[in-house]
Amino acid sequence: MKIGFIGLGIMGKPMSKNLIKAGYELVVYNKTQAKADELVELGAIRGTSPADVASQCGVIITMLPNSPQVRDVCLGEGGVIESAAEGTIVIDMSSIDPVESKAIGAKLAEKGIEMMDAPVSGGEPKAIDGTLSVMVGGTKENFDKYYDLLKAMAGSVVYVGELGSGNVAKLANQVIVATNIAAVSEALTLAVKNGADPELVYQAIRGGLAGSTVLDAKAPMMMEHNFKPGFRIELHIKDLQNALNAAHATATSLPITSQVMEIMQARKNAGCGTEEPRAIVK
What we know:
single chain; alpha/beta; 3-stranded mixed β-sheet; 13 helices
């Protein structure tokens, strides 16, 4: 099966590598062409545009920063819609506004092109080792058809519902992760400012109700002052903004999310937007 892969950034490149390892033939494209060089060396074919990729592949995966980039790649000049054959499917693994997922999918459907939204969680480390969590929206038939393809990049692939539902699940995930990071940051700061050893506090609470995957993943690196990005504050801000947009569109109130958004905005304004979100402990 020849797969098109568009978007070879911090997540897309290792995901593409895992598809190659799994035996898939790839046609790859990135706006910055040099990012495709390593994949071409591994055997991928270099595409010259999204339309060129679509002319060669019946399955196209996109992994892009946000809604405008997905819209441009799919529907813009030189986009997928210009040359994709009827029956082609776009699997958008970006994290975008679910309202946009549905709108883009509707435009593609007018040309007989199908779409699934399949955003991921896990960051660069899990993209590298192929253990991402994938949340999929679209038809159940397509989910079943492309499950093995998605599993080549993931440890967990879960069907959520109709198109757009994958991104709703991802936004819910990001709300929980962001608020947990903020809570861990405050808890460790409380420990330090009151003269307690944060490592011992962490060990004391991790086995109880406060224990969580976020606590175990973030607390040790906070204590080491390791803020090297596997994900970035500016990207988490993007996700929270999409969550707030979706909430406002449905008259939903997210007050805690709004507060954490302001904390992350403050870090970005301090010049730390490219740091890992755990840097809010500063």
